[in-house]
Amino acid sequence: MADETRNCLEMPDEIMGGMILQRLNAVEILTSAQKVCRDWRRICKDPAMWKVIYMDDGYDPRYDIEKLCKQAVHRSCGELIDISLRFFGSYDLLVHISRCSSKLNRLCLRSCYDITGCELSNAVKMLPHLETLELYDIDCCAEDIEAIGRNCPQLKSFTMKRDYTEHGDDVHAHAIANSMPALRHLMVVGTMDNDKVQAILNGCPHLESVPYLQWTITIATNHIHRSSVLNITGDEGVVYNATLDGKKVALMKPVHLFAIFTFTLSPVIGCQFLQRCWHFIENLFNGVDRCGQILHLIRWDFDFAILSINP
Amino acid sequence: MSKKTLTLMSKDKQLFNIEEHLAVQSVTIRNMVKEDGASSVIPLPRVDSETLALVIEYLNRQQAPEEDEDYVKKFVDERGEIPTLLELAQAALDLDIKKLMDAACMKVADLIKDFTLEEVREALRIENDRTPEEEKAIRDEFQWAF
């Protein structure tokens, strides 16, 4: 039996704070852990505990989640670098986060229905160091995206997706291309034609010029009848030659390349799409069989197909 | 050349033998061996014998690297008592065995997640050292949250 007199007060902060309490989420710490004893309260007030705040795993109606979030941000004393919100949040909260957290590097908003794209683009003005912005189910028009890009010149990763709809919107490709020149990682789902793909590849040169950084470009289309065929060929295992409908679109050096095709058209067109996809897959195989292989077909049904290639 | 053996001594003066090439998974021991060859007994004044026996059992595992993650998880799962896990975490910290420490701490965090305040205090043998005034101050501070 272990030493009976041992209690957690003898544990060094390194273990208790750094290793154990850190693994609890913000709500658990604020509503429970910090009340256990003085020592835990002291540890839970340490700004180092609050550099990363994830409040995205469910909603507890017992608490005013927005106030808890403000409290958590307040405790970081400006050290916050990574925050994730889900199912709550307002412009007021976003401004509070921005004002208090000039070091913020990553912001993820998921289903925060009370935040508009315009409000978001205003709030990020105060976040000059933001490098990663992930938006799920946030409505942003082209102007909002341009404003976000201008306000966050260091933005390296941008994600804009919908969690709950089957098909994507029209991608504001030109807004992205015009305002986010530092992008290395882009994840958008929606409709894109050749011009838009071309605009993004032109406007975001780092998507291709940093060969060892992982980047992703996701191309989605539900305009199947336009019969876009993306053809990718490999060159000495590193450089990929991409053509869209036979037109060269760019030289790319992807580590991972994902292609997502969504379609919500009639089954007939769906079937035609499947045939096209096989053509697409064959092209992929032809292009990469010397230097890589299709690792897996992540999902394959009538809604969408996702391919992942690892060279 | 026969395999070299090291001797570790726990807080309660019990001796444990372990082959050197296994013991050096501990960064602390590795540094000691590098510095002075560690020919004599290595004292571990903060680790009791039950815990040291567990650590030795862990170091002696014969796992392929790709199964190691699962093994260490299972290893701490089987020792699901919080006091034991805390001892283990402390020993792993002293000996600088990162995987073991991470797994033990993770397990403790998982266990206390769903506990009430009283359960946490009981499991970790913590006295509620707050005065009624302090209790009130905290309640007031968090009034708005409820």
UniProtKB/TrEMBL annotation, chain A:
Coiled coil: none annotated. Pfam families: F-box-like. Residues 11-55 form the F-box domain. Gene3D superfamilies: 1.20.1280.50, Ribonuclease Inhibitor. This is F-box domain-containing protein. It comes from Centaurea solstitialis (yellow star-thistle).
Automatic annotation (TrEMBL), chain B:
SUPFAM superfamilies: POZ domain (SSF54695), Skp1 dimerisation domain-like (SSF81382). It holds the Pfam family Skp1_POZ. Residues 5-62 form the SKP1 component POZ domain. Pathway: Protein modification; protein ubiquitination. The keyword Kinase does not apply. GO terms for biological process: jasmonic acid mediated signaling pathway; protein ubiquitination; ubiquitin-dependent protein catabolic process. Coiled coil: none annotated. Residues 98-145 form the SKP1 component dimerisation domain. Keywords: Ubl conjugation pathway. Part of a SCF (SKP1-cullin-F-box) protein ligase complex. Involved in ubiquitination and subsequent proteasomal degradation of target proteins. Together with CUL1, RBX1 and a F-box protein, it forms a SCF E3 ubiquitin ligase complex. The functional specificity of this complex depends on the type of F-box protein. In the SCF complex, it serves as an adapter that links the F-box protein to CUL1. Belongs to the SKP1 family. This is SKP1-like protein.
